[in-house]
Every structure is written in C-alpha cells, then in structure tokens.
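PT: before anyone asks, these are the final sequences, not the draft ones from last week. 772 residues across everything. Please model them as a single complex and drop the result in this thread when it's through.
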Amino acid sequence: MPDTQQGMRRRNLARVMHAVSAEGPLSRAAVASRIGLTRAAVSTLVDELIRSGLLEELGPERPGRVGRPGSALAVSGRGPAGIGAEIGVDHLAVCAVDLRGRTRAQVVRYGANRGRAPEPVIAELSSLVREVVAEAESEGLWPAGLAVAVPGLVARDARTVVRAPNLDWHDTDLGALLPEDFPLTVGNEANFGALAELWLGDGTPHDFLHVSAEIGIGAALVVDGQLLRGTRGFAGELGHVPVRPDGPRCPCGGRGCLEQYAGEEAVLRAAGLEQGEDRVGLLAQHAADGDEDVRDALREAGEALGIALTGAVNLLDPEGVVLGGALAGLAPWLLPSLRDELARRTAGQACPVSVSRLGSQGPLLGAAHSVVRAVLDDPSVVGERA
Amino acid sequence: MPDTQQGMRRRNLARVMHAVSAEGPLSRAAVASRIGLTRAAVSTLVDELIRSGLLEELGPERPGRVGRPGSALAVSGRGPAGIGAEIGVDHLAVCAVDLRGRTRAQVVRYGANRGRAPEPVIAELSSLVREVVAEAESEGLWPAGLAVAVPGLVARDARTVVRAPNLDWHDTDLGALLPEDFPLTVGNEANFGALAELWLGDGTPHDFLHVSAEIGIGAALVVDGQLLRGTRGFAGELGHVPVRPDGPRCPCGGRGCLEQYAGEEAVLRAAGLEQGEDRVGLLAQHAADGDEDVRDALREAGEALGIALTGAVNLLDPEGVVLGGALAGLAPWLLPSLRDELARRTAGQACPVSVSRLGSQGPLLGAAHSVVRAVLDDPSVVGERA
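LR: through. Structure below.
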C-alpha cells in the first residue's frame, strides 16, 4: 500500500481518539498540543469524529481561564460498543463495553459445555448475544463487532476453532454458526486474557507472558504491547512444554508436558480429589482449609510451572509473568514453589511473577475491549459504516 | 511523533529504495507503478536519492520501446557501505558490504580471544576495521556505520556487552573502545546470524527460530521479519532452557540446561575428546570418520536439542527452525535424533528444521547487512549526512 494523504488522515484520526480516550476531556487546543498537529488540522479531524458518533462535546470549559473558552471533548458514551463473548468449559458469558471502556451489559449462564456439539452451544450463545445487544441498544449504543473467546487453538482466519480438546471441538467454523449482523473475531481465551491484562491491568508491563488455565494450561505472549500469535496462530502452548522429558504420556503425543503436572486434572488426581464442575473452587477451598494433600499437589504444580517458565523466560526475556484465569485463584499455594524454582534456575535475574486482578473475567473483557480498541485504532472504519 | 508530511516523505524515500533494491534496474515509471505513487512524486524522490549517492542512473533504456525512453535506475555500487565485524572466541573478522548487498572487502584473523582483556582485542579489531574501510574507500565507498557481532548478551543500548561468558567479558562498553568515526551497533551473534538468514537465506520463512552455537548455544527469534529482542535484549537464551530439571549443574545457576547436553564442551566430554581450538572441525572429522563415541555424543546432543526445541515450538509456533553457525557443520549427525524427538513430541505438527547455507559466515554478514538495511529503511539519514 502506498503511503498517502488518506493513510495519514486515518492515522491522525486514531491519534486524536487515543489522546481523548487516555486523557480526556480535552479541548481541541489541548489535543493539538498533545499530538503535535496544528489546531486547524485537529478541528477538521474532531468534526469528522463527532459526526461519526465517536467523540462528543461536553459544552464550554469552566470559565476563569485565559482566552476564549474551548469546548471539552470526550469519547462518546453512546455510539459504537464492543460485544465480547466467552465459551467456557462450564459457562457462557456475553458483555457489551462502550468506547469509554465501561461494561454496559453482561449475562452469564452456567452449565457444562464439555462434549456438547458446537451447534446448540452457539445457538445458546447467540441468544445471549441478542439479549446483550438489545440492552446496549436501549442505551443508545450499537454493536461495532463481536469477539468470542474459546478455550482452544484458533486459526489465523479468526473464525475457525482448530482444536478445543476440553470441549471436544475440532475444525469448527464459528463464523458459519454465529449471526452475521456485525464483524466477528474468534480468539483463544489466553490471548484475550492477556490483552485484558495489557489494557486494564494495574501497572502491567508491555512485554509479558500471561499464563492462564481452565482445564488446560495456556499462555499468551505480549511483546511491545502486541500479541505474538505464531505462524498458525498457535503460539503460547505452555501446557505442552516438556518439564520432565521421560514423564507421563500426554494426549498431545509428548511425555512429561507441563499439563501432566500442573493441569487441573493432574492436580486433582495428585490431591486425591474427584473431578467436578467447580474444580478450581474445590482446590482453593481444600487448600485454604489446610488439606496437606491438596497443598502438596499445588506446590508440585508450582514447581512444574517454575521449570516450564524458566525455559520461557530464557527464550523470551519478558518484563514479567502474570498468572491469570483459574491460576489467579490458586496463586497463594502455587506461587511460593513457582518463584523458588524460577529464581534458582535464573540465578539472580528472576523475572517478577504477579497475579492478575481480573482473574476469570479477563478473557471476556479482553474480547469486548478488543472490538473497542479496533475502533480507537482506526476510527475511519466506523465513519464509513455510520 | 506526529504523522507529518516530513514523515511521509521519509517513508516514501524508503519505498523507492526498496523497490529498486528488490527489482531494479527500474525506470521512474516502473517505480511509480510498483509503489502506487504518481510519476511526478517519484521523480522528486528519485532526484533526492541520486543527490545522496544512493541511486544511480544507468542511462537510457534500450530502444524499441514505445514512448520516450526512460533512464533505468539502480542502487548505487558506490556511496554508503555497511561495515560488519565479528568478535569470535577463536577469531576476529571484518567486512564491507555495499548497498547492492555485495561483499567488497573482508579480512579474518584467527587466534584465541578467550580470557583476553577487551582492550587489546578491540584494538586489534579496530585496526582490521581501518584496513577494510581503506579498501572500501579506494573503491568509492564510504562507511555508513559499523555493526559488531559478539558471543554474549548485549544491553538494549547496543553498545554494552553485559555478559560474554566464553570471552569472560562483563559489562564492557564497546562504544568507549571503538573509533567514533561512524555510527556503532553492537549485537548478539545469534541475532545477526538470524538476520542474515532472513535477508540472504534461500526461501527462509519470515517467522523462524535460528539456533546457533559457538561454545554456548544461542537462538534468535524472527517474528514477521523482525527480531524479537526481549525486554533487556536477552531473548533467545535457548542454551539455558531446562532439558532435564534434575540434570547436571550449569554455571547459570540452573540444572540440566540444554548447554549441559548439547554445548560444545559437553559434547567433547561425552565423546572423550580434548578441548582444542577448532572444536567443531574436530567433532565433524571424527564423526565423518565413523567414530561411534562421537556419533553417540552428537546423537544425544540432537535429542536434547529436540526436547528444548519442542518447548520453543509450542511457545512460539514458528514457521521453521534453522540450524546455523557451528551447528550447521554438525547437522548430519545432530539432525536425525533432533527431528525424531521434535516430531514425536509435537504429534504430526512437526515444525520443519533446516540447515543454514551461510554457516559460520552468518553473524558477520548479518552485521554488515544490518547497516545496509538501515540505510534502505531510512535513506534520509544518509541524505542529511552527505
């Protein structure tokens, strides 16, 4: 693509949106000084963004300042919204987030999805999406897109679930099953969880490894504020990093993979507990009650995580590691042995390990915010639609 | 930085250079159609590049075509050159590469650098640099910059060698020791080797893991045509990925790191050979002669590489793995067990493993070409200098 006036205008629209989003309300003059363009150029861009419903004027700034009062600009609390959805092993969830980043509607439905065919699950999810969209529309919002988080590998077409072993889905084109009323993006839940951490986390670095778990163990790499997706979109398979190369066989074909030591099923087995629906809650409850078998099992899972993360940290040199998803709830019992192992093996250069504040909400929020971010990053897409 | 006319002009100068570099000689009209700008706009850009000495006119195109003959443009074979240098454990090398990518001068000096203080090594390297620069200048070239490949971790300032265990250098600021006649970049040898593979390799993918070895084992990740450097610039430490977590102690503080199984010293020890100067040549000679102890040692090193690479492939999902540097020379004996291990552990999704054609020349060429690429990517820097 040639670098043209048109391309420059699109990038500058994004710069205005990001400035107002990060620091607003701001006057036109303040935006101009933030992004280094003339006030006249900014005014043209702002007028276009107001016409598209992405910015709104709050009226004249408070008096008492020098010069003619400017009108403060804010990101619109009406207009486009991001719709996020999550297909979990034990639940479905949908939410709507406005351009200001506020969650404006949310529904969750519990119930096992493992082993169900994709069609009825997606039909149920679609009805939840309609419910959330209707609620958002009643508040003056309209859906700019739908992003769906799934516990599995997603092809780079961002539609096809290549493999979701814990749902037992293979090569499932969600694009064919979901309504086509607005743009669709399907992504791995660990990836969306990592994006949520990047965008919403407190002081999260821009280069980090986000580790999460539901039944499997997934990870996502954020490098310089961008997800590293891999050639096929499969990057982040921390669960299949070999921890003990002669260890137990793994369904992936390998031996001694991390999931054989730190996956939920392995931990439940080591702790002598039954498989059930709220597996993480069960483990956390027993550990909090002082059950030594459960604590030992979690300590050993932490060790295995520490060994696998030593490899990942050596390869990637991230600024930090964040434990999210189900792992966040088990962190008090995983972290001590995980940190010990990592510190011992990376002599004095230990990478800091923190726990996500977002916990199991991360993937859903990451999905919805990814739609919002796409609008902020290229407001002209919405302008052309509106 | 605001997105301005000036920024657009710089990017378009780069687009012209890359078009002529990749497909030249080209007429102005052909460049315009390649990059999607008007012929008038391209002419202005081309005139500027000719004045800076980056492009040259080859004279009118051959007659017989329709319309007024255009003058074909080519990347200049005079003008700026990239100077590359390599500090190896057993050698020093310097070369000059012109904008057309041809090596125009090269010197190599063999001799152990292990345990020598940085000052005399850099003094020797500087005299080799002067020699190569003088030779390049006699052909009408002038040095646009110097890039130095070192076998160790380099800080993000691209001057300071934080740790080069096999030279026994620590926190050494090469910027203070080298002549300041032109811009300096210091980088890890595995990183420069990977860039050489990216730019000069035959059909090398744009997402790959490049594994090389001198005494240690290093790797470099190229993602979408860009090096992944890590937060501190230390990414790619494949040599310290745990292979057997209870294995032998490693000087890094860990246990059972890859280097304990596949580093040159470990392989020599396992093969019952003495440490010497041309360690790789010695191993290759014995293996070629059918020495079973050496072949077993290399087979086991290949297995360990396969285990460590399984983790890396699961985390990064690269399009391929390339063995370069010293490993390229040992590939016939490493590859079978390496590929077996990787294939078995990544069931049916095995990532292709290939061997670099550049071998031990990679880091030096990568360094010199990185200077050339910097000029192609932002020709205005040279324009302002000239």
